[in-house]
């Protein structure tokens, strides 16, 4: 039974992390998939901090090309 409790607890932790990620994506992109002001600032900060474009593309569920456009501004 302890294993099941551990799995359920870990699942709740993963679900909570997923909610945070979805909230971040919602704040960074419009429903049409365009970057919001927050998203542009987030990408500028990531660029300045040296975070890889591929990581930000995966994090925000956008194409690497879209990240590159914002990194090169």
Outline:
By secondary structure, this protein is mainly alpha-helical.
What features would you describe in this structure?
This protein has helices at residues 2-28, 37-48, 53-60, 64-71. It has 73 residues and is mainly alpha-helical. The protein has one domain (2-71). Helix 3 (53-60) packs across helix 4 (64-71).
> Which H/E pattern describes the elements?
HHHH
Q: Which whole number gives the mean pLDDT? A: 95
Main beta-sheet strand count, sense and barrel state: none
End-to-end separation = 54 Å
Shape descriptor: elongated
Which band does the percent of strand residues land in? under 5%
Structural class call reads: mainly alpha
Uncertain stretches? none
Number of domains: 1
Short key terms for the protein model shown above:
elongated; 73 residues; 4 helices; mainly alpha
Describe the secondary structure blueprint for this structure.
Blueprint: H1 2-28, H2 37-48, H3 53-60, H4 64-71
Helix pairs in contact: 3-4
């Amino acid at each position: 039974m302890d294993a099941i409790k551990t799995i359920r607890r870990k699942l709740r932790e993963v679900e909570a992390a997923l909610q945070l990620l979805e909230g971040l994506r919602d704040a960074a992109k419009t429903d049409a998939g365009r970057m919001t002001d927050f998203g542009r600032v987030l990408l500028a900060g990531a660029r300045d901090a040296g975070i890889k474009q591929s990581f930000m593309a995966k994090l925000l569920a956008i194409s690497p090309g879209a990240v590159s456009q914002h990194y090169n501004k």
